[in-house]
User: Which sequence fits this backbone?
């Protein structure tokens, strides 16, 4: 962060020509009559401060530029939500914002980073909030431009609540009087503090998932997967912040950062380091829970397969018994059928011992089959 000058440089010195489109395109065309311009929808709040106190509350970007020029020692704090390309180009022309930073602010979907373009600092943050009803984490993206006498926030998403940050800073004018750096650190603090409810909500989800895993809930695998994806996104939001904050702290001596702000930033760095470690722990725990769940599901499937095999074995035993008794009963039926045929020339038809022989034959065959089946454990 560059050291804040005692006086705001004149606008002609502040706007270098190489950042502005050549020729007439440098000045946006006047708005056509009709519906209000897009800035009425994207400009959330704009204010000019002097010595930590709000001295103007412009309602348009053009009015903000004019009121800032009237305050040589003032600071502009502009808050935008999904601004149009025209609005960002007008900001770039007024405050010498680098085209690459403007392109990032337009496209969004950037990873957290900190870049310096001359005297302007460009910061990308990923805010998060926990939605209790849906039991999921909602991520927002915030782009911050910090200069010697201005701070611009471009928000993509519902988080963070920068109005609370503005109220907090306005209630502490001594801190706000330290300049855009103080506002940047307050925004960093708000983003990092917003991670705490997310961590608490995720911890609750983790406890519920562990209960569902050991209870055998079939839907728990899907919930683990969804939470794992959110933790990957959360990790991408928090891990780069650690290096970013240490980079800012490394420039304390070079840029003459106020001691109060140094303490402020160190506290934010401690919080984000703790949060990053918790997120890493959550991701590791989810991996272990997923492994345990897969093991339990495999054990349950093995138990079901074993039960099916045992049921099939019992059915086979019953079938063998039924088949054995059917064979035993079939033998006398066969003998009786043969002797029951009414052929005149049939042998043994007029034999006196024919009936006892048939009975004996039936008994011998049935006994033999019974012994054979018994030896094979079919009966």
Assistant:
């Amino acid at each position: 962060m560059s050291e804040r000058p005692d006086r705001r440089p004149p606008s002609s010195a502040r706007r270098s020509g190489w950042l502005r489109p050549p020729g007439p395109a440098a000045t946006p065309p006047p708005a056509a009559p009709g519906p209000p311009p897009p800035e009425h929808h994207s400009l959330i709040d704009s204010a000019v401060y002097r010595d930590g106190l709000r001295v103007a509350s412009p309602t348009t970007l053009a009015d903000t530029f004019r009121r800032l020029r009237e305050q040589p020692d003032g600071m502009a704090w502009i808050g935008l939500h999904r601004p149009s390309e025209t609005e960002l180009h007008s900001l770039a022309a007024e405050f010498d914002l680098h085209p690459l930073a403007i392109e990032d602010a337009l496209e969004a979907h950037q990873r957290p980073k900190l870049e310096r373009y001359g005297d302007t600092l460009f910061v990308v943050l990923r805010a998060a909030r926990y939605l209790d009803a849906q039991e999921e984490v909602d991520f927002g993206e915030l782009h911050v431009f910090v200069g010697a006498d201005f701070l611009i926030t471009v928000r993509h998403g519902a988080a963070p609540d920068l109005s609370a940050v503005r109220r907090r800073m306005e209630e502490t004018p001594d801190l706000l009087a330290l300049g855009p750096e103080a506002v940047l650190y307050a925004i960093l603090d708000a983003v990092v503090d917003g991670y705490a409810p997310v961590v608490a909500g995720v911890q609750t989800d983790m406890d519920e998932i562990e209960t569902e895993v050991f209870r055998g809930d079939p839907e728990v695998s899907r919930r683990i997967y969804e939470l794992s994806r959110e933790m990957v996104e959360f990790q991408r939001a928090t891990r780069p912040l650690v290096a970013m904050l240490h980079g800012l702290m490394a420039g304390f001596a070079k840029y003459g950062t106020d001691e109060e702000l140094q303490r402020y930033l160190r506290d934010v760095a401690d919080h984000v380091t703790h949060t990053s470690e918790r997120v890493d722990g959550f991701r590791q725990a989810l991996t272990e829970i997923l492994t345990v769940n897969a093991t339990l599901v495999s054990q349950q499937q093995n138990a079901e397969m074993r039960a099916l095999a045992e049921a099939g074995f019992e059915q086979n035993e019953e079938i063998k018994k039924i088949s054995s008794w059917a064979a035993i009963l079939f033998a006398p039926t066969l003998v009786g059928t043969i002797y029951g045929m009414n052929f005149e020339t049939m042998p043994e038809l007029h034999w006196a011992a024919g009936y006892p022989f048939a009975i004996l034959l039936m008994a011998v065959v049935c006994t033999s089959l019974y012994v054979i089946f018994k030896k094979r454990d079919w009966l």
